[in-house]
Specification:
mainly beta; about 350 residues; 16 strands
């Protein structure tokens, strides 16, 4: 029934031209479900997802998918690989950008500079939300579009201008008068807390072939920030209305948590645990192999199935629900219907 209604709505919208229509509307959406087989952890799309869905406009321009990240119909898989796209849960900002586009032979070159305030939230293991609202972003990106190929290089600087979320922990560490704990406290309170992200990626879209390769590095100068090398490779081939695909993605943490040097006494246990939790909240060492298929069964509508095998050593992209996981891997099965009209 949903498909029939959407097709009817889409047909009505296209029955009139833009010149003759007094009112023209467009919409997109995804209906889907996910099942995973590992007790003690719960699969999620990114670090901002506490429970349920996520929605928003995407404009950071770090990733190849760009502002199509939440438009499921615009890309091949059920979801973008969380090992690459899941670290930055919020990719929208309020600001300005300047773009210069020009032809270079048969190619189109596009240079973009952008910046502005950027609110950011991430969910902890118990589903609560930590709000880091005083952020600023500045970035540069260069795109080359040549025939079926699109290539992007981008560098982004993210600055957290307030250390308010870490003030109680830092005060407790400083009060212990232990030198190492004091150093960690001052590091937590240091502002601005800068994280740099750099991306290099290329994408091919042909009539029967889709391919993507991308590398992204996150390098933070703050003990809480992400320090990851991430990447993914995708290959898909279309046969009539069906496009099978395979994806491999990974994220490898290279950051190290600073010790507090506090003695293992009950009175210090909350500070030791809090310092460890804060510094590992963005540590991600995870690999994923995905197999699936997309079926375009109607104009601007598709159905996708996907099976993911995920291996993780330490991952902020899954939930530890205070039940020890019985394995270091999980299998995730997903089904989605996307539409755009």
């Amino acid at each position: 029934m949903l498909c029939a209604l959407l097709r009817a709505a889409g047909g009505g919208a296209h029955a009139q031209t833009l010149d003759s229509a007094a009112l023209h509307g467009n919409a997109f959406g995804t209906l889907g479900g996910v099942y995973q087989n590992s007790r003690g952890v719960a699969f999620r799309r990114d670090t901002g997802q506490g429970r349920g869905a996520r929605a928003g406009r995407i404009d950071l321009n770090l990733y190849l998918l760009g502002d199509a990240l939440d438009v499921g119909y615009a890309y091949l898989t059920v979801r973008p690989p969380p090992e690459v796209y899941g670290i930055l849960a919020t990719a929208e900002f309020d600001g300005a950008d300047v773009t210069d586009s020009r032809a270079l032979g048969a190619a189109l070159m596009r240079l973009r500079a952008f910046g502005g305030p950027m609110p950011f939230q991430f969910a902890t293991a118990d589903g609560s939300i930590v709000n880091l609202s005083h952020n600023a972003v500045f970035g540069l990106s260069a795109d080359c579009l040549n025939g079926h190929w699109e290539t992007r290089l981008a560098v982004v600087r993210l600055s957290e201008l307030s250390a308010t979320p870490f003030a109680p922990l830092a005060a407790g560490l400083e009060a212990t008068a232990v030198p190492q704990a004091g150093m960690l406290a001052r590091s937590l309170l240091h502002t601005p807390q800068a994280t740099y992200a750099a991306e290099a990626g290329t994408h091919y879209t042909g009539s029967h072939l889709r391919a993507t390769a991308m590398l992204v590095r996150f390098d933070s100068h703050h003990p809480v920030g992400p320090n990851e090398n991430t990447g993914d490779v995708l290959l898909g081939g279309r046969v009539r209305n069906v496009t099978p695909f395979i994806v491999f993605s990974m994220s490898e943490n290279f950051g190290q948590a600073q010790p507090t040097d506090l003695p293992a006494l009950p009175v210090f246990a909350p500070l030791i645990a809090g310092a460890a939790q804060a510094q590992t909240s963005f540590q991600i060492t995870q690999r994923e192999l995905s197999l699936g298929a997309r079926y375009d069964f109607a104009p601007h509508m598709d159905c996708k199935v996907q099976l993911d095998q995920v291996w993780f050593a330490h991952s902020a992209l899954i939930f530890d629900t205070n039940v020890p996981p019985h394995r270091d891997s999980m299998t995730v099965a997903s089904l989605a219907i996307d539409f755009a009209f």
